[in-house]
Design a protein that fits this description.
By secondary structure, this protein is α/β, with parallel strands linked by helices. The protein is built from six helices and five strands, in the order βαβαβαβααβα.
Length: about 140
């Protein structure tokens, strides 16, 4: 990578932030983190990320969606990945089933938590139009 790409991670689960951060740093990305929608909005005043990964449900059930909409207004074209544990917790699949639902959600990808490291790396690389680097999971 010529210039280090910056990924903003937002999740109220600090363990999840740490794990995601390690996965992305090992793939050569710069990482900035926030633990709430409000903290993320503050961070985005000084950081223009290349991509954002947001937890769907944080302090409020819709925090990730609200933040996604804010990001898309602030930085049109910014790739956003939403992470959700709803499917594993409830069995409900919240992934948009139609193009209309996808456009309302505004996220470029939606992954179930916990997302596998190779799934995170390949999705980030795809959204940033970069070749996916194959990094063994035990390399952390």
């Amino acid at each position: 990578m010529s210039k280090e790409k910056i990924v903003v991670l937002v999740d109220d689960d600090e363990d999840a932030l740490e794990q995601l951060g390690l996965v992305l740093k090992s793939a050569g990305y710069g990482v900035r983190t926030a633990t709430s929608r409000e903290e993320a909005e503050e961070l985005l005043l000084s950081v223009h990320p290349d991509l954002a990964i947001l937890d769907l449900m944080m302090e409020h059930m819709d925090s990730g969606i609200v933040l996604c909409h804010t990001l898309k207004k602030l930085y049109p074209g910014l790739p956003v990945i939403l992470l959700t544990a709803v499917t594993s917790a409830t069995g409900l699949d919240l992934k948009p089933a139609s193009a209309e639902a996808q456009s309302w959600l505004m996220a470029d990808a939606m992954l179930d938590k916990p997302a596998r490291p190779e799934e995170i790396r390949s999705t980030v690389a795809r959204l940033l139009n970069e070749p996916a680097e194959v990094v063994p999971d035990h390399a952390h």
